[in-house]
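**Backbone geometry record:**
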Amino acid sequence: MSTATRTPAVGTPTAPSAARRMLALARTETLLLRRNRIAVYMAVAMPVCLIGGLHQMLKAQRDRLPGGDLHAALVLGFYLTVLLFVVYYNLTAAYVARRNDLVLKRLRTGELTDPEILGGTALPAVLLALLQMAAITVAVAALFGLPAPRDPVLVLLGLLLAPAVLVPLAALSSAFTKTVETSGITTLPVTMLTLFGSGLLVPFAVMPGPMALVARLLPVTPALALLRTGWLGGDGGHHPVGWWLYLVGALAWAALAGWAARRWFRWEPRR
């Protein structure tokens, strides 16, 4: 008794892979981003406008900067603002807009899985942030002689893990955001805490002990600490925490934020 095997007929279309489905969704999101003037401004102009303020802030505390290099600290400050405004803020607004327009609900009826929908929506913002960070790094290196990172591997890990935390945080924040217009309010706590508690703009060494401890426990701090350690070789406070603990913390926060996003993310507006 023989068992016949079924082979697909020549020319029969096969289902697109998960990567192809996500890329197709990402292309659509890119077109929508280009047509949204406010989103484009927040994604491109806002971080550039903040550079002047960051430069003055870092210049005022030049002597207390880890490693003492103002240009490296300025690049890290730019990384921070790009990650917060291009990835976290814009993505929160995008999730809210797609939810309220019932786009997410319609996407779930097709072949896309939930992670593919969230990931495909986030992909353009993450890629735009990485391109901006690469451009400013090259520009500062060419104009001011930016020193090379002390540990490029840690810089790469930080650049990968920071969006891995911020993307699910954006999905989670969208669950508590009713409209696109109120996304600036609901994202403000995470934005302000990360700006001033990450150790990039205000070194941990100049913070009071309890405040520094709380700052180190914030969700995005471990990933940003990997960035800082990779560029500057420490956090200025000579804290005994090793880079591997920052790596474990970043992975733990990414997993926790991902679980919380899956638990509380809203796919359609409440009636």
Q: What stands out?
A: Residues 18-264 form one domain.
